[in-house]
Amino acid sequence: MGETPEPLEFELDRSSTVAIYLQLADELRYRVATGAIAIGQKLPTVAQGAALWGVNLHTVRQAYTELAYDGIAEMRRGKGTFITATPAKEMAALSPGATAGVASFVDWIASHAQRSFGLDREGLAELLTVAPPAVNTEGGLCFVECSMSQSSHHASEIGRKWNVRTRGWSLEWDKEPPPGPFVSTYFHYNDIRRRWPHRMGDANFVSIHPARSLKGKVQRCRKDIKIVNICLYELSETMARSIAADVTADLLDVDCPIQYQVVPGSAKDIRIISNVLYLFPPRLWWELHPAQQAQPNVLEIEYEIAEGDMARLAHHFGWSLRTSS
Question: What is the maximum alpha-carbon separation in the chain?
Answer without folding.
Answer: 65
